[in-house]
């Protein structure tokens, strides 16, 4: 019997605390597999953020540091800047963490061309704290803090983080992918690999924005949630590569 | 012949494997595992094509997928 | 190297480098900006790294990252910027991460001004951040002492795995004095086997975290923290006294203002008053016992601060009513003059002199 | 021996570096010294001052309430510091820039046309050195040699060519109080 | 309206609305998120505004803006988020801006956990931010008391032009009890003629600032602040006592844990021990004199906190060595049980009972 | 005699603390004139930030609030949201304030479509604190914290704030202008007027980025400084309108 | 009279709202009550529990160390709380879900096939009401009327149609302990 | 005829008005004002065209500019 698929060695052998059907788990697997395949698990340091993935330091089979809410890019910067160059440093952040409280940190990490990889899990909501509005929540989306649905007049417009960061010269590789079916999951894996390779080649800042689900707080079952990603999120957050060019000081 | 193995105790019964199995051979068992979930179970391993769609969509990396070695004589 | 003439802010930087700190993450703010600029110039020369963070919040979290990767690392700021670091300091303490954090305090509250002040005493000694933690706080009063205490700060940080605060004020940061960069003896090299540097060669994954969702486990963590603090309280108290041998009145003051007090004490002594100075150098742990040990002989304690009265509480906690305590403070960046202190001491001394 | 000196003038007149020269020279001469600038909003335009203590014993407070000498380079500084000098102390001014009448008669006043002299020496920027020359000659707290050493240190390699004119300025200043 | 059954977090929200606060800027964090959600639902109904800020830092500065525009305004958070507000709170205090800030504290330091805790006591009472300032701190121990104290918080904030902190913990925020929304009597309406709302009709430009580059002027400002604090110390001390009439041993506890203490005291009283409870309601200003007034009769004071020991310092400052003080604390989110407190009290009481 | 030009009534009659030749003064005048001409001085509340313009509350003839470093957009949000709609609220922020410590606040004010006007003074340096590197400092620019000149590898790439914020749906009007000669000063005035009109018409977030000088910390005289703006800054920070479109929820 | 009740089960089994019904009914009946949830990570998947105190006098601590009654809806909760009940107290379980043997003999155990009964009544979601019926009948702390009033309040207008089946469940539960 | 008025005490001697005056009729005076700056002064008001370039570039709003009323007869 040939093994077609088995649990990645990049994941520790523990159950996660994620809700049934939450795609955080899929994204964990993709990161773990990539690090395993690149054979860099032993030289990787991951940074867990504050969100449902806060405990990811118990799941990844590599050194992990847990950062304050929103500050993972700063923590990753601190780690990356003081360790030998062969170390791989990544952050794993939710949309509340990265796009709300951590907006300053992510913009500046990108602008500095910080040679780290950011896995940005956009599920359009604050999962961990019970379903409040995120900067990425869609217009009309009902959340604990937008009970009537998000209104542009009072709650503003959702932020397309990938597009925004792509305007920065410091950002080298930025792609948005999704997890709503097998094909997209496989594409997501490719993007994540590309991002880590960007770092390995010392090309600077890389980020993969992964559209993800929160069945629990969306009030949908796992399958419906994937449909919601496809039908509601993808149109507002178009998939694709937003940046794939390293800035060369000499060029401009 | 076991083509897929489901680590039952890690399963959360989310049903995503069921939704994505082209062969429609997975279902939730009628019992609870130690975490109180109804775990996924395979109806007919023989129908499985080892496509791994279930495994790729499983958020909890619960499923392993195998494929019988191709008969070398046939292959050559 | 001999003596050199440098600004206090720069002395901190050079002393940190002497202590083997080659990493600095900071953000400009008066009156500590010279330290940032100095590190920007000097660290590349020693193959270290200076990085200007986008904010104080980011700087302290970069420190968190660098420290978790096992290096000696420093950041610095002044009062408003120091307030922004409180969450990060609480995280460092909780995650048992060593780091040295400099606060060159200025007039507050709010934006206040940029003149010297000691009004961040509560913040640095009682934990300006949330949760049960303390940080050792060292308060030099001369530039030469900065050289020693900066090195000490790194030693304590590594030895106990704790953030340590070096507290100065605008005057100390801005003034120049001759200093000599001598290495302190008790340098220790500590193997940071806990650092998250990649698992290569050292087995299973390491984690740095301050989270424990389980209350029983978090209490265990907290108890360990408190054990550590007990140890630090036992070992790391630093205090200086001046003419206390026969003193009947004691001035308690630290940092910048202790210098002014010393000059004033010299003058008042000339008039025959038996007066001395107790100068806490470690503000946490506080030299409670040292102060208490003088209680019997003292008729009066005068606490002098460049604040509305903060350390005075620690003096009261040391003395527990056994000696009357007065407080004299200036705020808003005003440094009391020798003259006014002389007057104050004489006034209080009237009840003391026989 | 102990001198508590305040130097004050507009920003850009070299007040800080004059103070630094004194402190450095003092240190080289084996004295205890301290240098404390006024800083802050004054940087922009307004007046700036620096306090320098040079002493045979340890410097307690680097803050100077009652200077033994003040060196004043503009009128606002004169107004502010004239009254602070200890009785018997010195006021040195750049007479080209300070023209207010002195109200004190318990001090020694030296009004030196430092800019004029400096310009005669070919570089108006050495006006400060002229006054420092007068200062060391008057107080005797520092030797000319230490000040020259300080100059060498402060100017560094790139500005070596400025040393002669600076020394000339120093000497002219010293002569002013002979 | 009668009694309703609500969560503590929601009670805070409704009580604020009752107090005329129609503006709320917040950021979610467990265990206070229900307050944010409640305001999101309720405020539009009263034509007010709820805005989810991008961070705690932003929320407190939105509060600064709204307050400077003259409205009653509130924000809330829990420990780590509260740390991030320190700079902003210092600014509010310095600029004399009224606001109510809620801290539903959780286990710390660092990320800690989300269980109830009282380990932010130092931070809220000694000024977690920089500079010489204090904020009045009110600590309810029942949901009904939340109704009163929330209104009081707004009254004090406006009357003295100061930020006021309402301190609870996860238990208080998460539990339900029947409450009745009664308006407190001492509601005052204050004309905020200082607010920056545009000069139309009221003459020359007004400014809100905490900056004073001049040290003498900043000291004047600071002196005025201290005058204000003196006034608050005189007028706004709140404390509750229970069975203290004949007590020979006093328990000092506040908030959540005071309830548990009360149950434990009832049990120990049954055994004949003369024990009572002093429950500070205002943590700043602290009821120093009230505690001191019992000293003569007491043989022992036991301070109970859900922390490693913070308020105990204020008790020691009140007592100044006149009565022996013991401390009992639990941390990490653990709430002591009635049983364990009974045991503690009995142990300490052994020396007390005749 | 006809008055061709006189000091705006939007400015109080005081000297400023700005260094000689610093264009902060010109920008102050433009804002003041605009408010005067729109006749809204009595209903305007300005927010002074922390930077050299911190004391601008002593210069503008309208109500002013002084905000913490970087937080002016949050303070302005607080003011704008609680006052009657006819009030005009603006922030006046430097590049350190807005683009460094205040990055989170400005992005979110823009994303929310906050109906305020932001005057963003980009002088490529921290003026007030003595000339440290700003996120907008140019590559190679020597500052107190980039003594060897800004290097992309360590200090990252300058941020083009206008371009970045223009990607946000919430932003209605964004233009970059300069102050390096009379014609550009007059254009800057127009842009500022347009921005305030955008607010008055309740169209949402408006920002004018004004390229400005810092003779003191650049080590150039005032005239050379204007040349430096023209020759060095304008090429990297192209002038022009980056956004002039109000997002209508219904449209998309 | 005072009942200290802990209700525990998997998240999603309605543990919190069962507690809320009791507290609300208690309040309506003029009693002092408190309701305190366990919260936090348990929300995700694991077990959840709620503590409800119903008392004739003021509630001191809403935390329950030694419950007088526990209502347990899964095995993990049974393992955790069986031992905590005061001697003489009650353990009520959903016998369809809890199948562990009881080690206590100083308490009253009521194992009710609540899911089975609920399904017979046509709605498996009213299993909780069956157990609450048993609880009030056994303890007498609350009247059926108050619980019905609480039901009316909690279900609100939209779910009025569910009232009959809930009441039926309540009554079946009450009958179980007759 | 005064076409421009320079409020001397507010001038910081930055010379921007000088740089931008097309008529080249402004210079710095040879004295210091109360703040220690050499203030701008106009050499020849008659050469001034009231173009206001100086005023628009003055960071300190020190300069006022006037234009003689056009002779109404000529204008109509
Ligand atoms: C300073 C601070 N503020 C707020 C919180 C509370 N908090 C925890 S997670 C979270 C949001 C998480 O949302 P997101 O980043 O989208 O992650 P998700 O749970 O959706 O994966 C918040 C606000 C905190 N822990 N610290
Ligand atoms: C929290 C905080 N951090 C730092 C400072 C110090 N600080 C004052 S102004 C300033 C930078 C100003 O630069 P910019 O915003 O570009 O304005 P400019 O002076 O150039 O006009 C800094 C870092 C402060 N006051 N508060
Ligand atoms: S709350 Fe949402 S994001 Fe968090 S684990 Fe559950 S489903 Fe996933
Ligand atoms: S491998 Fe393919 S066919 Fe086999 S069970 Fe999984 S999804 Fe179905
Ligand atoms: S996808 Fe995984 S967790 Fe979900 S039901 Fe299938 S095996 Fe279980
Ligand atoms: S320091 Fe620079 S920005 Fe500040 S006032 Fe002076 S020239 Fe202008
Ligand atoms: S108005 Fe024109 S011509 Fe007249 S002085 Fe000014 S710039 Fe020169
Ligand atoms: S531009 Fe203004 S400040 Fe500058 S020299 Fe001319 S008048 Fe004076
Ligand atoms: Mg999310
Ligand atoms: Mg700037």
Write structural notes for this entry.
The complex is a heterooctamer, with 2 copies of chain A (252 residues), 2 copies of chain B (76 residues), 2 copies of chain C (354 residues) and 2 copies of chain D (178 residues). Chain A has a single domain (24-244), classed as Rossmann fold. With 252 residues, chain A is an alpha/beta fold. The N and C termini of chain A lie far apart (55 Å). In chain A, strands 3-2-4-5-7-6-8 form a 7-stranded mixed beta sheet, with helices on both faces. Chain A contains 9 helices and 8 strands. Chain B is of the alpha+beta class and 76 residues long. Chain B has one domain (4-65): Alpha-Beta Plaits, CATH 3.30.70. Chain B is elongated and about 40 Å long. With 354 residues, chain C is α/β, with parallel strands linked by helices. Chain C has 2 domains: 3-235, 3-Layer(aba) Sandwich (Rossmann fold), CATH 3.40.50.970; 240-349, Rossmann fold (3-Layer(aba) Sandwich). Chain C has helices spanning 8-18, 33-45, 56-68, 79-84, 86-94, 121-125, 143-160, 170-174, 215-235, 255-270, 288-294, 311-319, 338-349, and strands spanning 3-7, 23-26, 49-52, 73-77, 99-105, 137-138, 163-169, 176-180, 207-208, 239-242, 249-252, 275-280, 282-284, 300-305, 325-329. The radius of gyration of chain C is 21 Å and the shape is globular. The termini of chain C are far apart. Chain D is of the alpha/beta class and 178 residues long. Chain D has a single domain (2-176), classed as Pyruvate-ferredoxin Oxidoreductase, domain 3 (3-Layer(aba) Sandwich), CATH 3.40.920. Helix content of chain D is 38%, strand content 21%. Chain D is globular and about 40 Å long. The chains are: A alpha/beta (252), B alpha+beta (76), C alpha/beta (354), D alpha/beta (178). Chains in contact: A-B, A-C, A-E, A-F, A-G, B-G, C-D, C-E, C-F, D-F, D-H, E-F, E-G, F-H. At the C-E interface, helix 4, helix 5, helix 9 and helix 12 of C face helix 4, helix 5, helix 9 and helix 12 of E.
């Amino acid at each position: 019997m040939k093994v077609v698929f088995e649990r990645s060695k990049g994941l520790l052998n523990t159950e996660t605390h994620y809700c049934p059907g939450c795609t955080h788990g899929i994204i964990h697997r993709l990161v773990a597999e990539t690090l395993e395949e690149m054979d860099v698990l032993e030289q990787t340091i991951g940074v867990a953020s504050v969100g449902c993935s806060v405990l990811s330091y118990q799941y990844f089979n590599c050194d992990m540091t847990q950062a304050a809410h929103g500050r993972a890019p700063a923590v990753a910067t601190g780690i990356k800047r003081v360790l030998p160059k062969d170390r791989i440093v990544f952050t794993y952040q939710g949309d509340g963490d990265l796009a709300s409280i951590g907006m300053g940190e992510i913009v500046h990490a990108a602008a500095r061309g910080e040679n780290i990889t950011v896995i940005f899990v956009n599920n359009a909501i604050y999962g961990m704290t019970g379903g409040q509005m995120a900067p990425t929540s869609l217009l009309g989306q009902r959340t604990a803090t937008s009970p009537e649905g998000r209104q542009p007049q009072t709650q503003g417009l959702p932020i397309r983080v990938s597009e925004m960061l792509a305007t920065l010269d410091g950002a080298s590789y930025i792609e948005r992918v999704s997890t709503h079916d097998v094909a997209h999951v496989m594409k997501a894996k490719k993007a994540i690999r590309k991002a880590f390779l960007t770092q390995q080649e010392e090309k600077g800042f890389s980020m993969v924005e992964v559209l993800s689900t929160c069945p629990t707080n969306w009030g949908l079952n796992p399958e419906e949630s994937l449909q919601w990603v496809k039908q509601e999120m993808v149109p507002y957050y178009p998939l694709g590569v937003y940046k794939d060019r390293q800035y060369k000081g000499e060029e401009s | 012949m076991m083509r897929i193995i489901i680590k039952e105790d890690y399963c959360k019964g989310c049903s995503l494997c069921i939704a994505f199995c082209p062969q429609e051979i997975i279902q939730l068992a009628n019992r609870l595992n130690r975490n109180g979930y109804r775990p996924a179970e395979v109806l007919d391993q023989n129908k499985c094509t080892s496509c791994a769609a279930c495994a790729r969509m499983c958020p909890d990396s619960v499923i392993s997928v195998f494929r019988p070695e191709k008969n070398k004589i046939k292959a050559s | 190297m001999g003596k050199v003439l440098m600004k206090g802010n720069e002395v901190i930087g050079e002393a940190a480098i002497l202590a083997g700190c080659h990493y600095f993450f900071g953000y400009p703010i008066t009156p500590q900006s010279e330290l940032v600029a100095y590190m920007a110039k000097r660290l590349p020369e020693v193959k270290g790294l200076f990085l200007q963070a986008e904010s104080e919040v980011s700087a302290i979290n970069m420190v968190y990252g660098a420290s978790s990767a096992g290096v000696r690392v420093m950041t610095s700021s002044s009062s408003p910027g120091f307030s922004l670091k409180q969450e990060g300091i609480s995280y460092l303490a909780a995650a048992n991460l060593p780091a040295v954090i400099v606060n060159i305090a200025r007039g507050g509250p709010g934006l206040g001004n940029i003149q010297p002040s000691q009004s961040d005493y509560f913040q640095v000694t009682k934990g300006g951040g949330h949760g049960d933690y303390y940080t050792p706080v060292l308060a030099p009063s001369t530039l030469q002492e900065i050289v020693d205490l900066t090195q000490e700060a790194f030693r304590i940080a590594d030895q106990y795995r704790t953030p340590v605060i070096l507290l100065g004020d605008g005057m100390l940061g801005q003034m120049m004095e001759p200093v000599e960069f001598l290495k302190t003896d008790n340098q220790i090299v500590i193997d940071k086997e806990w650092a998250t540097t990649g698992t290569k060669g050292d087995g299973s994954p390491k984690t740095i975290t301050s989270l424990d969702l389980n209350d029983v486990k978090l209490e265990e963590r907290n108890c360990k923290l408190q054990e550590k603090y007990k140890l630090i309280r036992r070992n790391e108290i630093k205090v200086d006294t001046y003419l206390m041998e026969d003193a009947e009145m004691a001035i308690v003051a630290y940092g910048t203002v202790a210098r002014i007090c010393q000059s004033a004490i010299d003058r008042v002594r000339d008039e025959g008053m038996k007066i001395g100075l107790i100068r806490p150098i470690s503000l946490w742990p506080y030299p409670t016992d040292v102060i208490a040990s003088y209680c019997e002989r003292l008729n009066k304690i005068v606490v002098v601060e460049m604040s509305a009265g903060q350390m005075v509480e620690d003096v009261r906690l040391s003395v527990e009513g056994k000696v009357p305590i007065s407080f004299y403070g200036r705020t808003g960046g005003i440094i009391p003059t020798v003259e006014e202190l002389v007057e104050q001491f004489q006034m209080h001394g009237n009840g003391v002199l026989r | 021996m102990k001198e508590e000196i305040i130097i004050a003038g507009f920003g850009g007149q070299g007040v800080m570096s004059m103070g630094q020269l004194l402190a450095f020279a003092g240190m080289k001469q084996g004295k205890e010294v301290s240098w404390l600038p006024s800083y802050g909003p004054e940087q922009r335009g307004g007046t700036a001052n620096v306090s320098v203590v040079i002493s045979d014993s340890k410097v307690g407070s680097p803050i100077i309430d009652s200077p033994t000498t003040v060196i004043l380079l503009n009128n606002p500084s004169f107004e502010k510091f004239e009254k602070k000098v200890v009785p018997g102390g010195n006021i040195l001014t750049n007479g080209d820039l300070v023209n207010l009448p002195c109200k004190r008669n318990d001090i020694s006043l030296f009004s030196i046309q430092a800019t004029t002299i400096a310009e005669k020496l070919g570089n108006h920027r050495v006006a400060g050195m002229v006054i420092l020359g007068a200062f060391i000659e008057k107080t005797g707290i520092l030797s000319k040699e230490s000040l020259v050493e300080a100059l060498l240190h402060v100017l560094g390699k790139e500005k070596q060519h400025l040393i002669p004119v600076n020394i000339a300025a120093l000497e002219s200043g010293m002569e002013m109080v002979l």
